[in-house]
């Protein structure tokens, strides 16, 4: 059993196409998309439309899908700048109600037993209290102890997630793997994770591929994406 994993593609269509081509060549049996397919990059609709055509894909709800599904005004915090609000409004207008309906059915967590290994797929650690945000605050100090605490409610032995764009691989009480962002890259290299499961064991490989980053930057300005200057600087190192 071989699966392909992506997270935080963030409207980066050139990177997504390179990754899907890799999954096809590697003959992955299924794909898990761990949230945040949309926003930041210029091609949210093209990315989600492409992924929704795939017969072997499993989706997870990310915070940006949640912004779109629930509506920006209902979940925007005081810490979100006016520019960020305008960006989310622009993203919502670039999509449509049919996509909103499809995304609203995305789960926050998938837990499966794959060839004898209990595996969890999620965007990030979740709050259980209704009076708090859906996702726990990002843990910047990535250690065995912090990951054990962050994911203490998850029973699975192997946990894949994203949200924090920097990848990490930590073995504590469980195996915690942040696959990182496939779409927000400082250079012209994207990456994906492919996992091969055998009887009660697994092999994880990270694949790096070149993509046309300049095309993403051109589209940011061509489409007049709100916050394009900040996005170019912070997420693409321009």
TrEMBL record:
Where's the Calcineurin-like phosphoesterase domain?
A: 1-198
Output the Gene Ontology cellular-component terms.
cytoplasm
Q: Which Gene3D superfamilies match?
A: 3.60.21.10
Lineage, top-rank taxon, reads Bacteria
Query: InterPro entries of this UniProt entry?
Result: Ap4A_hydrolase, Calcineurin-like_PHP_lpxH, Metallo-depent_PP-like, Pesterase_MJ0912
Q: Which Pfam families match?
A: Metallophos_2 (PF12850)
* Record GO terms (molecular function): phosphatase activity
**Family classification:** Belongs to the metallophosphoesterase superfamily. YfcE family.
This one is known as Metallophosphatase family protein
Q: Which organism is it from?
A: Clostridium tagluense
